[in-house]
Amino acid sequence: MISESFLAEYHVGLKQLPTSVRPRERLLASGADHLSDAELLAIILRTGSASQNVLELANQVLSKFNGLDGISHAAIPELQELKGLGPVKAIEIKAALMLGQRALALDPTLLPTIRSPEDVSLLLGTKMGLLEHEQLRVLLLNTKNRVIADHKVADGTLNQTTTRIGEMFREAVRHQAASMIVVHNHPSGDPSPSAEDVELTREARRAGDLLQVEVLDHIVIGRGGLKPWRSLREMGLGFDMDKRPI
Question: Could you give all domains of the chain from N- to C-terminal order, each with its CATH number?
């Protein structure tokens, strides 16, 4: 009889997987652009732990810290709290992310520029439109409307406005953002703004005026149809009928 402890520890090692799904081989065959965040992180980590292969470990790290942005802000001791991440791997992750940030700093044209609500939809529409739960994000921009961070504020309904506002602007101050765009999705697929969406917009604009971070727009992402998004600025909701373009 196979023991429960054996079953709990059994896992498929990366070398047991087909060559076509191993991260290093995929990078050589298809290029880095075609790899997921988990696959790229797995290449940096090189090895997993006794209970999981390196790809599983990479996915666990991304899940624990809510993506690359969370990892970049995590301290090395925080990273080491995960089983399978010792000090060497934690340092290598931080070094790799810093190199990426410096590469962007050297060539700011690599950062996406937001010129219209359509640009926001192109950047986040696919990812957020497929979610089965409501999610609130902020795009943080520099003075040239280039995206310097895409931060997930919260999952769930847009209640507890004060908490949401505090989290949005905490990240804006941390990144020294000149402006921001609030983005959230409607799992129903209908992007029509609700009363709560309008109130969140007003609260965000008030906070932005105090902190000198302009709230340029609030985009609601739905799915389907010719225009699966709505701009509250275009609709004059929460912006005092100010319909200036981004």
Answer: 4-108 (1.10.150), 117-235 (3.40.140.10)
